[in-house]
Design brief:
Pfam families: Redoxin. One of its GO terms (cellular component) is cytoplasm. 25% of the residues lie in helices and 23% in strands. It is globular, with a radius of gyration of 15 Å. It has one domain (32-190): Glutaredoxin. The protein has a seven-stranded mixed sheet with strand order 2-1-5-4-3-8-9. By secondary structure, the chain is an alpha+beta fold. Mean pLDDT is 93; it is low at 1-10. The protein contains six helices and nine strands, in the order H-E-E-E-H-H-E-H-E-H-E-E-E-E-H.
């Protein structure tokens, strides 16, 4: 069984939403050593991105909406906020291609709780784990760009390519979110090791 396709989710008119601008907040990440912090994964494991070998694709997003739960007021007016489900579904649909192009593993990460992450991973039928940084330890250690929405600290959307514990490449800002997986795939094809 598969989840909603990217095509089913592409009824979003990205041109009507607030587009994120490069504010330089991720400029320090390229070349950075990844913090040695264990993150709760939806498969029940604890993942330390610093300890993984090979290329890791880590897409970072604000929050995945839950069915029946309203998004925060003004969500569509926050630059780059909308699009977490289409982004996750695109990484799901491109997962095999990403691995074939040289990614050793793929993860998604947000500040949502492990239970919220598990719900999204199951509902969207993701073939990879989502990671929870609900306590903001990883975000703080890495200096990830964030925003406060409805009294919650959320991460700004970006994708990191990590190679043997070091950030090799940064996609920031990411827009539109549903095309990010294809952009990462093209980057991997050009930068095969």
């Amino acid at each position: 069984m598969s989840g909603p396709s990217v095509h089913e989710l592409q009824n979003v008119d990205w041109s009507r939403l607030a587009r994120p601008e490069d504010d330089g907040a991720a400029g320090h990440l390229r070349g950075a050593t990844v913090a040695e912090i264990a993150l709760a994964a939806t498969d029940g494991s604890a993942v330390s991105l610093a300890s993984l070998t090979g290329r890791t694709v880590l897409y970072i997003y604000p929050m995945t909406a839950k069915p029946g739960v309203a998004l925060p007021d003004g969500w569509d007016d926050i630059p780059g906020a909308r699009g977490c489900t289409p982004q996750s579904c695109a990484f799901r649909d491109h997962h095999a291609d990403l691995l074939h192009a040289g990614a050793a593993q793929v993860f998604g990460l947000s500040t949502q709780t492990p239970d919220d992450q598990r719900e999204a991973a199951n509902r969207l039928h993701l073939p990879f784990a989502l990671l929870s940084d609900a306590d903001l330890r990883f975000a703080t250690a890495m200096g990830l760009p964030s925003m406060t929405v409805a009294d919650s600290v959320l991460l700004r959307r970006m994708t990191l390519i990590i190679f043997d514990g070091r950030v090799e490449h940064v996609f920031y800002p990411v827009w539109p979110p549903d095309r990010n997986a294809a952009e990462v795939l093209e980057w991997l094809k050009v930068h095969r090791t």
